[in-house]
Amino acid sequence: MANERILLVQLADIGDLVLTTPAIAALRESRPKSQIDLLASEHALPLMPSGLVNRLIPFSRGGGSASREVFSLPNLRMLLTLRARKYEAVVFFHHFTFRVGVFKFWILAKASGARRIIGLKNQNIGFLTDAVDDEGFGARHQAQYWLDLVALLGASGCARPAQVKREAISALALPASGHPCVIIHAGSGGYSNARRWSAEGFAAVARGLQQERGAEIVLVGQPEDNGDRVENLLEQKPTNLIGATSLPQLADVIANADLFIGADSGVMHIAAAAGSPVLSIFGPSNPDAWSPWTAGGPATVLSSGVECSPCSYVGHGIGARAGCEARTCMKLLRPERVLAAARNLLDAADAESFPRGRTLAETAPPKAEPRLKVLGVPIDAITYDSWMRRIGSWVAAGGSARHVCTVNPEFIMIAQADPIFFNILNRAEICVADGVGLLWASRHLGAPIPERVTGSDGVPLIARHAAQKGWKLFLLGAAEGIAERAAAILREQQPGLIIAGSYGGSPAPSEEDEIVSRINASGADILLVAYGAPNQDKWIARNLPRLDVAMAMGIGGSLDFIAGVVPRAPQWMRARGLEWLYRLLRQPWRLRRMLRLPRFALAVLRQKAGEKP
Question: Would you say 562 and 509 are in contact if contact means Cβ atoms under 8 Å apart?
Fold first, then answer.
């Protein structure tokens, strides 16, 4: 196999290339005499260590669409080069997520002339000859996916460290004070600014390490990475290497430091490959896919544990690449927590090396009972009685808050186009079937749900049980004065009911801290949020880790019904599943929303037939 030619393709960013190096090293070890070429983004190629591949082929990223950039002049020359090389095999280190991107890879496969085309298999790709099933982002670490791909060529799929090229330069020597040297990278790469932690947070951690350990702080990255803002917030000025290094020089600087602190980024992956202890901060992106793949140094991953995180790189989709406006997942990571983790990593006796993909955030154990999936959204086969028993056990047990979502067909269709909402519904403790359409769907999918469990009927029932058992309620949302009016009516209907608080407010990020403080100070056991879907469930998901309640639930227009602002359908219409028709007749403007219902029915029928919704 001395003349065998293999083309490896990794066209993503710096961190992606770093995480590909374990697979490349394994392949080189198994085929020392093969001609192995690497096609990668030209700005990332300087990081490739020598000896792993025979030829580096740059791919020019012109900033255009995936289908057009392959036809830029530099890349047309590259295609001719591939054609002349006549490869026996090509390996694509990519998830084939977008159909338009698949066309680019198909062109590359054709240009290579390869007989064997190796990659991850999902519904978007059909030209592979050898494949590993794509189980979605985070089912395996990215580095392990790529090791599994080269295993198809006979290489070892066992985990091994990533590698980066290092280049020392005396002019960039680190401070030699005898105190710990801590590298801080305040950026996140250009792909998603949502992954960035605040400059104020980094500065607070840097100040703490300077005061407690006499740490020498070194700032790295590019000018757009917020490092200069961190410097301006520090009284004791750090060493500023922002924009002063090449990638190999940056790798060497980090390798000689005592600790690296940064968010999910290519620089973080360089640090892990260089062998530095790494403290990485994750918010919107998926640590199960992208956590530090270390070369021996300990690594700690911090995340806030909000229910809606991660919201990007989940399942088989990119998801919410830009996160959400609130960025609560990053805001809840307080400097004192990051500082405590930094101390542990600097103290050899206390340093912990966490397995790849693990985070420090507590996650709920998987549910034992099966859940019906309707267009990818889980629905629990739960009754009112079992739900009330579950609430009682939560209140008695205390601990972390549980999120209950009342799901109807409209919610499910919204979730198809809203990855954040989709992920929240999949992570909620319970998703009840609030909609006659879900009863129909469950029957057609062969898993009938015992009864419809609605928020509108559930709130009065919760109030009745609360009055009997002493549960305290907090009513949040609706129009001005509605929550207070509904509270008064519920107290009148259920003597002894304790309404710990009621407040309108809004789901705006700027109000979150005040509202959470108000709820927690009330001593409530159950929080009912009437901001409308999907805002109410997004608000709950963002703030769930810091809510001192047993259960939080979005209730839509339930407070309007209780307060008498909006009448409910007659009982006979509700019993026959015609409440939607009554609301449409009274509110014709809902027609546009109701058009989601036939789309829902068609998608369910396609799901039953085994087609992609």
Answer: no
